[in-house]
Amino acid sequence: MRHSPLNSDTDEAGAFDGPSKTQRKREMEALQEVGKELTELSRDQLAKVPVSDRLREAVREMSRITKNEAKRRHLQFIGRLMRDEDVPPIQAALEALKGNSREENARLHRLEDLRARFIEDETVLTEIGHAHPGADLTRLRQLRRNAIKEQAENRPPRSFREIFRMLRELDGGSREPEPSGEEAEDE
How far is CA 31 from CA 34, 39, 56, 86, 165, in A? Predict the structure, then answer.
C-alpha cells in the first residue's frame, strides 16, 4: 500500500512521527491553564513573573472583560500567546508565589527553625543582627519576651507569629500574610 506524499505526518513505513491532535490539544489546554493562573494574580505578583510585555498586557486586559464568552475567548488568546513564552520559569514563579516550591518551603522551614532557636536562646539575636543589619533588634527582643510570656500563660501566640513575619520580611520574601483561623479568632 502506498502513502500519499501530501501526508507529512507519516514516514515511508507508515509510522507516525509527531504528536497526535489530542496531545497537541492537551498541551494547548495546559498553556491556557497557566495563562488562567496568571489572570488570577495581583499586579504586584504579576510583575514578579517573567513574561513578555504582550502577554502581561493581555493578562491585565482580562480583568476588564465582563462577559463570560468574551472571557473564554480571551483565555484562548492568552493560551496562544503562551506558546511563544518560556513556560518552565513562569510555572516556577507561580509555584513560588503560591508557596509550593521546594525552595520556598525550605526557606520557610529555615525561618521557623531560626524562630525556634531565637525563642530558646536570646544570643541568636546577634546572628540575626549580623545577617540583617537593618533589623529592629529591640522590637524582636520585645516580641521574644512577649512570646515566652504567652506560652507560659497559654495565650494565643500573637508575638510568636509576629516574630516569624518579621524574619520573613527581613529575609526578603515578604508575601501577603495568610490569616489562619486562629489568627482571625485572636483579633
Answer: 5, 13, 15, 11, 34
Report the distance separating Cα 5 and Cα 3, nearest Å.
6
For the chain, give every domain's residue range. Answer: 21-98, 102-186
Task: Compare 182 and 26 and report the one with higher pLDDT.
Answer: 26
Q: Which CATH architecture has domain 21-98?
A: Orthogonal Bundle (1.10)
User: What's the CA gap between 6 and 4, in Å, rounded?
Assistant: 5
**The pLDDT of residue 151:** 92
Fold classification of 102-186 (topology level): Diphtheria Toxin Repressor; domain 2 (1.10.60)
160 with 150: CB under 8 angstroms? yes
Instruction: Give the C-alpha separation, 56 to 58, whole Å.
Output: 5
pLDDT tens-digit readout, 147-178: 999 999 999 989 999 999 999 888 875 444 34
Query: Rounded to whole angstroms, how far apart are CA atoms 48 and 156?
Result: 34
Beta bridge partners of 16: 10
Name the pTM for this structure: 0.48
For residue 79, give the nearest of 112, 139, 37, 118 by alpha carbon: 37
Q: Is 78 helix (H, G, I), strand (E, B) or coil?
A: helix
